Amino acid sequence: MMEMNFVWKKARICPPGCTTLQRRGEMRNDLYITMERGEFEKGGKSVARNVEVTMFIVENSGQILKDFISFGSGEPPASEYHSFVLYHNNSPRWSELLKLPIPVDKFRGAHIRFEFRHCSTKEKGEKKLFGFSFVPLMQEDGRTLPDGTHELIVHKCEENTNLQDTTRYLKLPFSKGILLGNNHQAIKATKESFWITSFLCSTKLTQNGDMLDLLKWRTHPDKITGCLSKIKEIDGSEIVKFLQDTLDTLFGILDENSQKYGSKVFDSLVHIINLLQDSKFHHFKPVMDTYIESHFAGALAYRDLIKVLKWYVDRITEAERQEHIQEVLKAQEYIFKYIVQSRRLFSLATGGQNEEEFRCCIQELLMSVRFFLSQESKGSGALSQSQAVFLSSFPAVYSELLKLFDIREVANLVQDTLGSLPTIVHVDDSLQAVKLQCIGKTVESQLYTNPDSRYILLPVVLHHLHMHLQEQKDLIMCARILSNVFCLIKKNSSEKSVLEEIDVIVASLLDILLRTILEITSRPQPSGSAMRLQFQDVTGEFVACLLSLLRQMTDRHYQQLLDSFNTKEELRDFLLQIFTVFRILIRPEMFPKDWTVMRLVANNVIITTVLYLSDALRKNFLNENFDYKIWDSYFYLAVIFINQLCLQLEMFTPSKKKKVLEKYGDMRVTMGCEIFSMWQNLGEHKLHFIPALIGPFLEVTLIPQPDLRNVMIPIFHDMMDWEQRRSGNFKQVEAKLIDKLDSLMSEGKGDETYRELFNSILLKKIERETWRESGVSLIATVTRLMERLLDYRDCMKMGEVDGKKIGCTVSLLNFYKTELNKEEMYIRYIHKLYDLHLKAQNFTEAAYTLLLYDELLEWSDRPLREFLTYPMQTEWQRKEHLHLAIIQNFDRGKCWENGIILCRKIAEQYESYYDYRNLSKMRMMEASLYDKIMDQQRLEPEFFRVGFYGKKFPFFLRNKEFVCRGHDYERLEAFQQRMLNEFPHAIAMQHANQPDETIFQAEAQYLQIYAVTPIPESQEVLQREGVPDNIKSFYKVNHIWKFRYDRPFHKGTKDKENEFKSLWVERTSLYLVQSLPGISRWFEVEKREVVEMSPLENAIEVLENKNQQLKTLISQCQTRQMQNINPLTMCLNGVIDAAVNGGVSRYQEAFFVKEYILSHPEDGEKIARLRELMLEQAQILEFGLAVHEKFVPQDMRPLHKKLVDQFFVMKSSLGIQEFSACIQASPVHFPNGSPRVCRNSAPASMSPDGTRVIPRRSPLSYPAVNRYSSSSLSSQASAEVSNITGQSESSDEVFNMQPSPSTSSLSSTHSASPNVTSSAPSSARASPLLSDKHKHSRENSCLSPRERPCSAIYPTPVEPSQRLLFNHIGEGALPRSDPNLSAPEKAVNPTPSSWSLDSGKEAKNMSDSGKILSPPVPPRPTQTASPARHTTSVSPSPAGRSPLKQGSVQSFTPSPVEYHSPGLISNSPVLSGSYSSGISSLSRCSTSETSGFENQVNEQSAPGAGPAPSYSGPEEPGRKESKTPPPYSVYERTLRRPVPLPHSLSIPVTAEPPALPPKPLAARPGHLENGTRRTEPGPRPRPLPRKVSQL
To answer: What is the C-alpha to C-alpha distance for residues 519 and 73, in angstroms, rounded to an integer?
Structure first.
């Protein structure tokens, strides 16, 4: 506790330092005593003492001074102090600090006594005195106790000793350091000591003897010289404590004998003055100032001070050592204060006597100073240092001189003195900064504030500033001086002096100020943060000074300035310089962001100056004196002035905009008018600025200021006119406009109003021009580009990537390519589109997009420059990089077939360069893609037709219809919701009818969305037997140009009992401008065709589709491709149950009645075809039931029995007892142009066991499928049909079937096209059974998505004139029947129609005859093949898979359309339908109806044609080169004709066999025009890629 108390007390009484002894005459006399420690003896005891110290302040008389011991702040004073006691400690440490504020009069004779007592622990309260110590406060010579630690003697005494009689111990020694008399023995005998530390803080008492001698100089006159010499040795704290007394002493000695002591007193005074310059004592300057003003009385001192000061100044140039002289010069401020005060006192005392003498003395002194300042340093820098010392303190003299002289006199004195300084070239660097500081202090002084004196001092100030700015030195100080100069010049001052000062400043500083700003802003930024701040501060100050100067200039000043240039070159340089500076001032970084007012002021000054200078530009630099550089600088300045962000008033709040307009107006319009005026004055010189100024002027016109646009847009007409005069066209103007529009509008500039204004103004301007037609074309092109750019910018503002962004980018990309032919911009947007696709994870579309750029490159070593993200590399390297990126994206998008083609292309390049390492990697990559095709599942997307109607849609969508490729698992409802989210203001139309004109012109957005069915064009792979569904699935939904949807309707009176009689179908075919997938997920519909199918045709197609579905399911069941038999069960149940309840019989009632036959004689063949299909369906059902019986599980046997029973009921309802042995049928021809094609079929016999047999020439014999047959269900469909419900969603959905109005086999969901059924929710599509209302809603337009087919065997039916000829493999194979052949050429051999379930015998017979048919394989070029391998002239055609073994029966599946003996051609109807799901598992031969292959076969087949020659290689005339649609689906269309495939995906025909799979893409057939078939081109050579610039 005692220790804590000690620490607390010590913290509160910490003594101050010497520098705080006195402030402004404060009186203090405080003594600080610290009781440190003690050393005591035991005093005869066995343990140490418990020592307590008691302290008293005692006078000589023995009286104790009361209340002069202070314990700390807040504690009351005491008369005695008791220390704390340390238990049993003979060496205690107290370190107690005490303050003794003893008055000066009490100090002399007083001493401090310390009494030591032992505090007994046994006898509490008893304290026994055993010794004491004392210390006097002042010595006999008047000095006080020295500061420091003192070891005091502990004098022993008895307990009852009386210490009140001080005379008994004051004569004793008190300290071991101070010995008195002969008491050495006593001192040595004592071993006890007590230590204290003293510190005196007094303004009246001193511990220094020399100071006492000086202050008492009158008592010892002989010691004056010595005392003055020793004053420099006295501690400064002692001097400042007695500052007033010391100064009185010095001036008293000077008055006593100035001749003898004048120099000594001056030196002592200089020492004291410089002592106050020290930071330790600088706060004593006010004490000296107070002394000079109030206490100084040396009226005659000025004479001696001037005399000695001049003596020192005169000897500066000669003195070798300048240190003492520099001390004198450093003290000149206070020396002049003493001189001035002394003179004032003298004048007051004498009435102003000797005034002229005093002035002469001052003049002589300053003349000596001027001479000294004018000297140049020779060899050493001592003189320069002396000059610097003088200049640093010289400005402080001004205020003192003004007390005695007139302000003009002082100004002239100062001007002469500063003017004597040497030029900067010859001055040491150390002096330059001091000189500028002197100039700066002069400008800041009272002397410069007065206009009269300022006009005198301004020239010398500007002279020195000019020299420093010219050398670019001390810029910070120069900027400070300039700022102070301009601060004193008031705006709008009418004083003549101010105008004159502006004249002087303009003439002296304007040019150098401009150069300084240019120099500063062109320097690199310093690295340090502090230096960077200084740099910015300097720039800002110089800029502010320049603006202030220009703001003060009037017309007279500008005129004088322009007249001051002697030559045009000088004027030109000045104009270029000031225009450049103005461009710098306009920079955004010149001022902080929130300094709007400063920016407006600067812009106002700039535009005012430009308006003055433009006259000089017109007068001096036009016609023969035209100078392009200065005019270009002028226009460039004007453009960036207008484009400043701070002048775009549209961004301001209304109140802020109003205030700016009231004060400054719209400076953009003012500058725009000035640009237009200057442009009109150029005349023929305008050609120098075309096309350079098109971009800058275009940027100005994009600013949303109507007046500015109206002024600037006509300049483009002028440019077009002058360019037309010079070149005969204005292609340069067009190119520049287009190039700049893209970059400017992408920055957010321009709007729809600008587009309309640009179009209207320029069209009006060119009405009377001779080149009006080409001008209109240019304006239209630019306007269309603006439309697309505005749409693109609006789309890009959205957050997520959607179809709108991609579609807009595609539109702009195609515009640059087709209409503008801007290759670089085209490539840039290719990569923008590529990035969008990657962001949206549209990897297939991303690959197609990047392929556009790849197509522009060749496999060459031409060097390409760095472009976008591509480094500098050769064209080969870039193309290789692109190929690899495209392959990667095709892989990620599961479009592996296209990736394979690119792998082959790049592998060819590696092989040609013998780069086997990369070749190996590429072959392995190609192999991995084949594996992925076979092993991985691919989802077949939905396709949707979307119509965008109304004027509120973007330009690229407005009143157009598109077909969109949906995302995985995306059905109609989800797609519709996504589109509505992308267009939140759109209204969804609830019908599929074409909208009328009111919808097109409506100020709204209408969306019309429904699902469409893709129609593959290439059927080669789809119809080939044995091709896995994993391969077929790619060709069903890729490279699709054509889509279809059906709409049922009733024509005429509707028969309520049998609505089949009037049920027509409107079939709409949509043709796209580009195939899907491509560079976008949607493409515009180019053409639409609408045909109507009669009720009879509809019935035929529905039956065909249902029959094909049954065949497929039976085949899958036989080959055990089904997980369970439920799909077949449900299909059989649906057909048989519907038929029993009157389904197919409705067709009999509608079309087989005599009334219908008589009224429609042209439908005879169709009626026969319908009858055949009905009988065929019965046969298929019979065979299907046999297969079903074999595989049906036990728990479903009752259902099977029910189906068998119902089947006999069905046959009886159809009137079928036994199938006729022979049914004659002929090809069906539809004269009304129905898009459907009837097919001739010759189905082979099929046994339920799946054994292949020889057909009995029956057109209705149904073929079995062996285990090698490929599944017609895709993996996705397989999963769906394995549903326990048995409702197969996939196997009946390839093409749209036509509806049935009743609950027949045509009325189930399986047999009706989703485009014909009502628009039920998607959730109903996968349900096992649909409600009756959905089954019978046949008249509603369907908007539901099509049910995805698993595979397709037959394509979209095309013209009935197209037929397929198949050749038998073997000797004497002949083409199949064609309706165009003459009768003798058709060897028709009717076959029995009954099903052959007993097939063993026929199989053996056929095997013995050697006519076993082999399934087809992809065509291969001619090679050395085995004897058993055959090829035909038409590809694809059946070909032997393996040699036949003698005497064995090879299992096979003949096609329903195969013939079975040489030379015989069957005309049996084809078992076909648009609802089939791939190459039929019931057939190994396939037909093609819409492929280009079929067209060529028909064209090449001639009456009487014999056996076709064997395949002879790529040159075979009978083979049409398969035209593969381009993988990127971008076609250049000329007269709306497709362009051939780009070479990157074209596989040239070679002699080597191609790797499987064959070319995945087939040619798009030409459209039939005017009833004639377009001739397909022959094999085309590989196109040379267009030369791309070095991008």
So the answer is: 62
User: 1297-1346, pLDDT tens digit by residue?
Assistant: 333 333 333 333 333 333 333 333 333 333 333 333 333 333 333 333 33
Q: Is the peptide bond preceding residue 1462 cis, with omega within 30 degrees of 0? A: no
In contact, 1197 and 1259? CB cutoff 8 Å: no
Of these ranges, 742-751, 805-814, 830-839, the one predicted with the greatest mean pLDDT is 830-839
Structure token pair of residue 1388 = 């028709």
DSSP annotation string for 679-697: HHHHGGGGGGGTTTTHHHH
Cα–Cα distance for residue pair 985/952, rounded to 1 Å: 9
**Token pair of 1533, please?**
């269309």
Query: For residues 1242 and 1375, what is the distance between their CA atoms, to the nearest angstrom?
Result: 15
- The CA distance from 1006 to 436, in Å, is 78
Q: Is the CB of residue 127 less than 8 Å from the CB of residue 119?
A: yes
pLDDT in tens, 668-708: 999 999 999 999 999 899 999 998 999 999 999 999 999 99
Residues β-bridged to residue 1088: 1070
Contact partners, residue 1119, CB within 8 Å, separation at least 6: 1250, 1265, 1266, 1267, 1269, 1271, 1481
**Strand, helix or coil for residue 740:** helix
- Tell me the C-alpha distance between 977 and 1033, whole Å: 27
Show Cβ contacts of residue 314 under 8 Å, excluding neighbours closer than 6 positions: 368
Select from 918, 858, 1420 the least CA-distant residue to 926: 918
The residue assigned the tokens 């330790």 is: 280
Dist. CA 430–CA 416, nearest whole Å: 22
- Most confident of the ranges 697-701, 1416-1420, 1565-1569: 697-701
Note whether 462 and 456 are within 8 A (CB): no
**Alpha carbons 219 and 212: distance in angstroms, whole number:** 11
Q: How far apart are CA 1195 and CA 1063, in angstroms?
A: 40
Instruction: Centre a 10 Å sphere on the Cβ of residue 699 and count the other Cβ atoms it contains.
Output: 20
- Written in H, E and C, the secondary structure of 1027-1087 is CCHHHHHHHHHCCEEEEEEEEEEECCCCCCCCHHHHEEEEEEEEEEEEEECCCCCEEEEEE
CB-based burial, 93-123: b 16+ in 10 Å, e otherwise: ebebbbbbebeeeebeebbbbbbbbbbeeee
DSSP 97-157: EEEE---HHHHTT-EEEEEEEEE-SSSTT-EEEEEEEEEESB-TTSPBPPSEEEEEE-EE-
Residue 62 pLDDT level (bands cut at 50, 70, 90): confident
Element at 1513 (helix H, strand E): none
Place of tokens 């193309």: 879
Query: How far apart are alpha carbons 305 and 336 in whole angstroms?
Result: 9
| CA separation for the pair 1042, 1083 (Å, rounded) | 11
Residue 1038 has pLDDT above 80, yes or no: yes
With pLDDT > 90 as the criterion, what percentage of the chain qualifies? Answer: 29
Helix (H, G, I), strand (E, B) or coil at 964: strand
Q: Is there a contact between 546 and 513 (Cβ–Cβ < 8 Å)?
A: yes
Question: Residue 282's pLDDT band (boundaries 50, 70, 90)?
Answer: confident
Question: C-alpha 888: how far from its chain's center?
Answer: 26
The whole-angstrom separation of Cα 930 and Cα 899 is 10
Q: What is the rounded (10 degree) CA torsion for 1344, 1348, 1354, 1355?
A: 60
By three-state DSSP, how is residue 168 classified?
Answer: helix
- Classify the phi-psi angles of 828: left when phi > 0, otherwise alpha if psi is within -120 to 50, otherwise beta: alpha
- Please, what is the angle between helix 1164-1191 and helix 1095-1118, to 10°? 20
Coil, helix or strand at residue 194: strand
Half-sphere exposure of 1437 (CA within 13 A, CB side): 26
pTM higher than the cut 0.85: no
